[in-house]
Amino acid sequence: GKAGHDHYMHKEIHEQPHALRQTISGRVDELGGNADLDIDLDDDFLRTLDEIHVVACGTSHYAGLYMKELLESLVDVTVRVDLASEYEVYDGHDASQTLVVAVTQSGETADTLSAIRRAKASGMTSFAVTNTVGSTITREVDDSLFIKAGPEIGVAASKTFVSQVTTLALFTTYLGRLRGTLSAEDGADLVEHIRQLPNAVQSVLDAEPKIQRLAEQYVDSDAFFFIGRGLAYPVALESALKLKEISYVHAEGFAAGELKHGPLALVTENTPVLAFLNDAAAADDTVNNVKEVESRGAPVIGLSTPDETNSFCEHSIDVPELGRLEPLVANVALQLFAYHVADEMGRPIDKPRNLAKSVTVE
Ligand code: M6R
């Protein structure tokens, strides 16, 4: 049941510290600065491959984009992230040196299964990152890695997104250490941040009353925009998807630098802007974008570590310092924001209109 929560989604948001402990348990090698993962793919292949293709839909696609940002800064590999429904393999591509990774919570998404089949037909080695043991995807791929988030009932993904990104961060560590591009020291930093995730997420959950008040204050807005750079850009996209999915209000995520190339025309005093000002996400550059929207009268909610970075924002939500995983923790605050906007509007949060938990048609 819902264990005293009004909705499964609320329960699942609050379950995240626990879900993350399961995701991480036994997989962090602090001394070696490495991830201890049970991966059956051939080490020599992982050492020499030169491309990774990620195929996924919706929230899982954004988890893939987060991994791309991590991988490309830490590991010598080119990463392509495609919406599964858009994925094509081109003639002449060296499939033998490419790993295709399906990111899918359910393991049953038809678009993702179909993309994996196209990749396999071209000769690629395939890998799945999924929550569901025994799902169709696990029978199609060469090897699977489980995110271990536990069952998720709400149609909107919450704990599974955070567990996916965490699992992909572990995979990044593993690959970086195996290929020698990630030093033991940098690996130790990353796994230390992974280890601290459950507590960091808990501290954001503890700020729920403040986040709820902000949601109630802005519930009547025309639209909501989320802006971020680097690692925070996929989180901006995910936060916007969450809000639109459960509240039916228009919400969009933008790369902060893109505002001036068009979206700024939408900004008014009735469109709150939620800005990621995390250190690991080029906060200083985003500050300028915040000033651009503030001068158009938009209320700004800044997410950052509790320092001066957000002091000029109309509102701020504190996110503990957590290096490259800080934007992921910021996401939890915006899950709560989306939840409370939707709840205030009386939406059927666990079962939004027109949507299904797993989409088994292409
Ligand atoms: O099970 P999957 O991860 O393959 O599902 C992919 C999307 O359908 C899913 O993430 C969808 O976008 C969620 N409802 C978002 O909250």
Automatic annotation (TrEMBL):
Q: Which domain of life is it from?
A: Archaea
- Compartments (UniProt record): Cytoplasm
The enzyme's main class, written as a single word, is transferase
What cellular component GO annotations does this protein have?
Answer: cytoplasm
Query: What reaction(s) does this enzyme catalyze?
Result: D-fructose 6-phosphate + L-glutamine = D-glucosamine 6-phosphate + L-glutamate
Assign the protein's first listed, main location to one coarse class: cytoplasm
**Gene Ontology annotations of biological process type:** carbohydrate metabolic process; fructose 6-phosphate metabolic process; protein N-linked glycosylation; UDP-N-acetylglucosamine metabolic process
What's the Enzyme Commission number for this chain?
A: 2.6.1.16
Quaternary structure and partners: Homodimer.
Q: What is this protein called?
A: Glutamine--fructose-6-phosphate aminotransferase [isomerizing]
Give the taxonomic lineage as stored in the record: Archaea, Methanobacteriati, Methanobacteriota, Stenosarchaea group, Halobacteria
